[in-house]
Amino acid sequence: METDARRFLAEHEAKARPLETEANLSWWRLNVTGDKKYEAEAAAKNAAHKKFFADPEAYRRVTAWLAGGAARDPQIARQLRLLANAFRAHQVEPKRIEEIAALETELELDYAAYRGVLRGERAPDNRIVEVLRSSTDNALRREAWEASKRVGAEVAPKVIRLARLRNQTAKDLGFRDFFAMSLELNELPEPRLFEILDALRRDTEAPFRALKKRLDRLLARRHGVTPTGMRPWHYHDRFFQEPPEVNGESLDRFFAGQDVQALTERFYDGIGFEVRDIASRSDLYEREGKCQHAFCTDIDGRGDIRVLCNLKQNEYWTSTNLHEFGHAVYDKHLGDLPWVLRKPAHMLSTEAVAIFFERFTCDPDFLATVVGVSPETAKALAPALQETFRVGRLIFLRWALVMVHFERAFYADPDRPDLSRLWWNLVEEFQSLHRPEGRDAPDWAAKIHIATAPVYYQNYILGNLMAGQLRADMRRRLSGGRIVGNPETGAYLRERMFSTGRLYDWDETIRRVTGDPLRSDCLVEELRTPAGDSLMG
Asked: In angstroms, rounded to a whole number, what is the distance separating the alpha carbons of residues 116 and 108?
């Protein structure tokens, strides 16, 4: 039986890997160009890859080997377990797979091509963000915010239709809905997830409320309104997921005029990772029609790793670039493993690594060593940098709670007539934002993840917890507790985490790396108490 299983796995790779590679290449071309001519190709390649996993005989064989204890070799057993989940997710009619793939691809293009209209002109996302970051013209701010939301009205009917199809598949396979199926087949028990989320909500409630009250006083004074008159367009970004700038002393001043990609390469050089080969295959600057977001993708599972960004000379895009190249170095340094195992342990694990790296724009060692800020200035800024990090994490985590709770309710009933009200109820509950008076629009659909990366946001939350745990462990283990400019940092990650790929699940992976299962205290302690005066005022 084990011999048969080994033969099956070899045959599986020979057939599945080319299909996955072709699907990834088509998806890449669609996102970097936004050209509709790639839509049909991307949908067809995506469907072909997924239909490969719809083979009922292959699924039967894999589950039979697992049930019969065919694999004494842990690598064989783990591959069979992962493939059993992958096959189970696609045991539906090929026609439905094609329908879902076509709709997903159509939505990818809708989001990539969308540009809001601001003062009569088409405005890319970076322009919308610029207004919300810096303008003191309240009318312009509101216009920019509303322009960013109109994509929701354009795509919402398609997103709801897609949710119905996903739910139909999940229910046909014996799951409550797509939300429950996604968690279970990705080895994330729903009860444990919400136990963690409920605890995080309690732990962040008091510090977030105090922070939000302070921000509202500062921003209200800046915008000439009362704190109770604050509305979503008075904040720093479209979803209140980033810390607002309120006194002009943001970190952007350190990154103005900098070559963001050169900073990224210098940082990764210092910790023992070469990323120039990845950059040479990547697409890093904005262009009409191109996807306006950021992501990293491993095209073939064997080294063709690429990053898409839309870089600007500011802290946000420097942090984002560090994040995406964090995914990239994880993919690049996976161990010598069978193809099925040559992926990060879990999406939350690769998010943990990316989040670990993105925070270095708030690190005094990074500013001094990589950016060129004087050591004296960087040292003096240390308390404010820590507070800026704390503010950013609190704001992001409360926003992420909105996303996870909304998606759970959305997939419970995507046809409920009050989706807009549900969205704003959650925004008010978790983020303490006041909804605009009389607004009844599908603002939830303006968030691309709900359509194209469904049931994903919990990975950012758990990734933040894991990133805090990794950082604390490195501080204990590395020479002098130093991370920036220390090649031991890269060695730690390569040898302790990256090399095992998906051989272990996410919880066993972090336990093997740090000696403990996933913990929240490392991050929560950083969030509770202000570290000093924030750069935000």
From this structure: 16
313: nearest Cα among 279, 266, 263, 359: 263
**How many angstroms separate the CA atoms of 514 and 500, rounded?**
14
Structure tokens at 109: 């293009």
For 190-218, the pLDDT digits (tens) are: 999 999 999 999 999 999 999 999 999 99
- Residue 501 to residue 78: CA distance in whole angstroms: 11
CA distances from 342 to 75, 303, 331, 334, 503 (A): 11, 10, 8, 6, 9
Q: Per the structure block, which two tokens stand in for 153?
A: 């009205």
User: Domain spanning 190-243+259-273+318-528: which CATH class is it, in words?
Assistant: mainly alpha
- Whole-model pTM? 0.96
Span 169-185, average pLDDT: 98
| C-beta neighbour count of 136 within 10 angstroms | 9
Tokens of 442: 């599908």
Taking residue 258's Cβ as centre, other Cβ atoms within 10 Å add up to: 15
Contact status, residue 128 vs residue 118, Cβ threshold 8 Å:
yes
The model's pLDDT over 418-431, given as tens digits with 9 standing for 90+, comes to: 999 999 999 999 99
Distance between CA 439 and CA 437 in Å, rounded? 6
Q: Where are the domains of the chain?
A: 1-97, 190-243+259-273+318-528
Please report, rounded to a whole number, the percentage of residues in the chain having pLDDT higher than 90: 93
Rounded to an integer, what distance in angstroms lies between the CA atom of residue 80 and that of residue 5?
Answer: 8
Using the predicted structure, report yes or no on whether residue 394 has a pLDDT greater than 90.
yes
With CA atoms as reference, report the closest residue to 115 among 270, 290, 246. 290
Strand partners, 308: 283, 295
Query: Nearest Cα to 371, choosing from 326, 328, 322, 331?
Result: 322
- The predicted pLDDT at position 246 comes to 65
Angstrom CA distances, 458 to 239, 280, 313, 403, stand at: 17, 31, 29, 8
Residue of 477, 472, 465, 457 whose CA lies nearest to 519? 465
- What φ, ψ does residue 437 adopt, rounded to 5°? -60, 130
End-to-end CA distance of the chain: 66
Over range 49-55, report the average pLDDT: 97
Please name which of 460, 508, 485 lies closest in space to residue 353, comparing C-alpha atoms.
460
Taking residues 312-331, what's their average pLDDT?
A: 97
Q: Which of 238, 215, 209, 237 is nearest to 227 (CA)?
A: 215
Please say whether the beta carbons of 523 and 465 come within 8 A: yes
Model confidence at 68, pLDDT cuts 50, 70, 90, reads confident
C-alpha 284, offset from chain centre: 17
Query: pLDDT tier at 244 (50, 70, 90 boundaries)?
Result: confident
- 535 confidence band (pLDDT: 50, 70, 90): low
